[in-house]
Amino acid sequence: MACPPAEAAATMARHLLARLLPAIAVWLMLACNVHEALPGSVSATHVPVRIELLDTDARSHVSVDGGGVVLPTNGRPARFLLHFTLPASRDEDPSWQLRFNRVAVDELHLSNGQWRPAAQSYYHPLPQDGLFPMAFLQTLPRDWSGETTVEVQARSTQLATLRPQVVRTLYGQQQDQRSLALAVTLYACILVLALVAVSLLFGARELAFLSLLSFMATSLLLMLAMNGHAYTLPWLRGLSSLGGRGINIATLLVCATGIAVARDFAGRRPEDPWLRWLPSTGALAIVSVAVACLFGWVPGPEATQQLVTLCWIVASSLSAVAFVSATLRKAWMGWALLAAVAMLGVTGTLFELSVRGMGTEFWGRFGFQIGLVFIGLVLVLALIGRIADFRVRHERERSARQASESRLQQQEAYAELIHDLRQHLPDVAPKDMEWNAVQMAMARLLPLLKLESVAILLNRSGYDPILIAEPVVHTSRMAALTAANAETLRAIAQRQVEVAALPLQPPPSAGAPKVKRTYAAVPVATSGGLGVAVLEREGTQPFSAEELALATRFGLLVQEVSAEARANHSLRRAAELDVLTGILNRSAIDGVLVHHFAEAERTGQPLSILFVDMDHFKSVNDTYGHACGDHCLQELAAVLQGVLGPGDALGRYGGEEFMLVLPGQGLETARHVAERLRAQVELASVLWQGNPVALTVSVGVAERRLHEHEPAQALGRADRALYAAKHGGRNKVLLGD
What we know:
This protein has about 725 residues and is an alpha+beta fold.
């Protein structure tokens, strides 16, 4: 199952690219073509310009083609003269204008005698420059004609080649419009790619798309700075105070985010240690350089330019290595990304040649920006391909998470079943332990395996089959179903094999089933014989081997815990009973007394205690022997048990002394019970080796008093009453004081 947000994001991204990028590409080609077509059509609209340098500084020199001046980067002004011949103009002719390509110039001064227009600056545009200026413009006086010389003084801290032109105003406007169309097209490309990155980021929630968005944002900032438009936009005018450092910082940020997006595309794989730390270290180092530039910690503009160039080389190398790693792992569009990096390197080289006076103005201004747009486009397409990988990974993680959660639920249910069985079974009669355990296990299996019902059919030789169903409301339906398939289920029980897909026939009276159900069978072995558990699930989803193994595991647990509970019950009963008489021993009867004493205190009900002692027991032992004495104790215990009512308890307290606990009975009622049991003992016929043995008992009776919290005081009163009865003639009942 695909991830809906990621799939929707990829779909929206494809639609955006399909609709907008072809139109943008057409604009881009048209703009490039018209820009390159200009030199062949300017003969009637411009006049040649000859450049004469006034400086002896070698860092200020004329470009290779002779059409521009390469400005020094140390901040010193370059001075040169422009010589040109203006033809005589008619009134209807457009004015001539002196224009320079808009490069990163801190100050640009023009002069010709008294003619000294206002100085211009790349970072501080004049109001008449407009929102998107494309050149430095200065309209020449209309009365100028013939040989003309203009002195120029320009200062810059960036690598730049200043190219002068003298053209008609109308033609200059057309040039600006064409250049602006190309610049806006490039901005639109970056914005579209950024919008795609945003949709992918919110849809797929992948770190790579955040890196891509950062790369698009910093690329747009750099393009605005390279065209000088960052300093005319109201929300970016704060960059003017940074001067050339702003362009350097934007370049460094593009380098850092480019490394980040290359790293995230390649993936931080454990088997590639360098992908975990080298790109991140490089990106952090470049960001650190950007911070140093921001605060002016890098000494001198020339050192800054060299450092920026070095960072650009490092970023290109790290990105290329990351893309090579991804390509070797057969990542989608890996080769295309390598080609895009190569193209960016070529356009970057052309940019460097242009600003150093060894290339054309077009590539110096727009070549690098076109390279950024191209690599951004390829990155978007490549990262869209990651959506499929994302869906596969998401499905794998979801399946693993579901399997882990299922195992955890099974373990918790297994542990809870063990706890419930061990807590509940000790209170159940041994003959009912196993079936109670079976029902508890069935109730646990229902939600765990998403069952509609489960039934256990037990076949015992010589007996009718036994059926247990859960939920109980399905008992009649499951009984009819198992009866219709009795032979099949009996065969499964005998073979003791699991059946994942059990074909069961519906009962004849049921007709065609209205709901499709799936069945499975798991063999069950109990102390009563062999059986089979029928698992029923609504729908057509088959039972997995893991589900059948879990049901079998629950069945084995029922057998194990039931056997343990029966053994514990036997041990507990053996530890609580007196070996000779079979009634409770002293420890057990003391525990019963404490329990009933606490209940009496809680409920306010009466509680009485009877101490019973056999009279002349020593004489019986001396006359008939100890074996006769033991026989008399057994007979006495049997008589006392016959007197017990529901809830009463009897125990041998020691020797020939017995104790009865009568919960809910007051002193007077207890006295009647004591009298009855004394009379029955006296009337009992006890024979030993054919000779009758007369038995009598003395009884002491005591009742719990309201202020008593422990049984010790009541026991003391009953014991004293027994002692008084023994010394008062025996064979009598006395009440405690």
